[in-house]
Design a protein that fits this description.
Radius of gyration: 17 Å
Shape: globular
CATH topology of the largest domain: Arc Repressor Mutant, subunit A
Order of helices and strands: HEHHEEEEHE
CATH superfamily of the largest domain: Winged helix-like DNA-binding domain superfamily/Winged helix DNA-binding domain
Number of domains: 2
Helix content: 25-40%
Oligomer: single chain
Number of helices: 4
Strand content: 15-25%
Structural class: alpha+beta
CATH architecture of the largest domain: Orthogonal Bundle
């Protein structure tokens, strides 16, 4: 999901490139994928720098972390609440917005279980049209 957010604080060239990479994609990227994209643009940086910048942008609510059952950290632009379709063969990830009101379900959970949901994540795993 792309959203026209600007970075808070000092905009370094690396930080601007990171934001640009994440805005151009329609799926969350791993740090390794981000590093590959940065190198294609002529930036020579390391994983530590990328993680540090992702952390700063998370604190600024510009970027959010997404972790699926494979426990791999991925990052995407913060924006409209959405979920993901994950192809188990080619590993393509597609954003999906559900029409059903999951916030209403969270209220029911609180009423029945006295459990306050702070956030939720929903992923659908299967095969994309290409891999079927």
């Amino acid at each position: 999901m792309t959203m026209g957010r600007s970075l808070c604080g000092r905009n370094t060239k690396v930080r601007e490139a990171l934001l640009c990479i994440l805005q151009k994609t329609q799926q969350p990227f791993t740090v390794s994928e981000i590093l590959t994209q940065l190198r294609k643009q002529g930036f020579h940086t390391n994983k530590t720098t990328v993680y540090r910048q992702m952390e700063k942008m998370q604190q600024q609510h510009v970027v959010q972390e997404v972790t699926f059952s494979d426990a791999i950290r991925r990052f995407e632009i913060s924006g409209i609440h959405h979920h993901h379709l994950v192809c188990q063969k080619c590993h393509k990830i597609v954003d999906i917005i559900l029409n059903n009101d999951l916030h209403q379900e969270e209220k029911i959970i609180f009423q029945k279980q006295k459990f306050k949901v702070l956030s939720h994540s929903l992923e659908f795993f299967g095969l994309c049209q290409h891999c079927q």
